[in-house]
Write a structure and sequence with these properties.
By secondary structure, this protein is mainly alpha-helical. The protein is built from ten helices and no strands. Helix 2 runs antiparallel to helix 3.
Amino acid sequence: MSDPTSDKALMMQVKNGDLDALGVLFERYHHRLFGFFYRLTSRRDISADLVQDVFERILRYRTSYTGNGDFATWLFQIARNRHADHYRKMEKENEWEHPDVPHPAASNPAASHPNAPHSAGPHPAVPDSALPDTDDRLLLEQALARLDPDKKQALVLSRMEGFLYREIAEIMACTESAVKVRVFRGLQELRQIMAGLERQTGRKRIHPN
């Protein structure tokens, strides 16, 4: 017998018009979604708005829910798409979420050039290492802000949200190999950016023993 309190069961209740069930899902996931958006935007106000937008979309399109696959993967697919919409809007209006931070291509032009060489092959082996060691959350946020959206999303979903590569592939609508490439190159670029920021600020990373 299926668990009536599972995410899928609750979402099926939402599909049938039970708004109380949506409230339960909101309580389960709004903190996690807020963290996801905050790591992508570094803006608390924008993150809170995007969380609300996600649940509004769930309510609006609830009848299209099929119950196939993992609920969290489906939820973060909506969240990822909502962030992509937000990013495109901000880019179109030339209103960067971080006015003091240059466009990712400006801070790392080689990474965005279509013919730029990459040390990784087409299917690099992605190490299980965490994000670069640092005791400075602000430094990490500034470095993440300089990555292009796809690499940033892949890193956040993999290293911070704990999704498997196959789940991220579903969330980002790409192949698992593409996810591995984005994570691998994103980690490389993140380390380079953080090293540059440390030189600018005179800070040094703290490496655990």
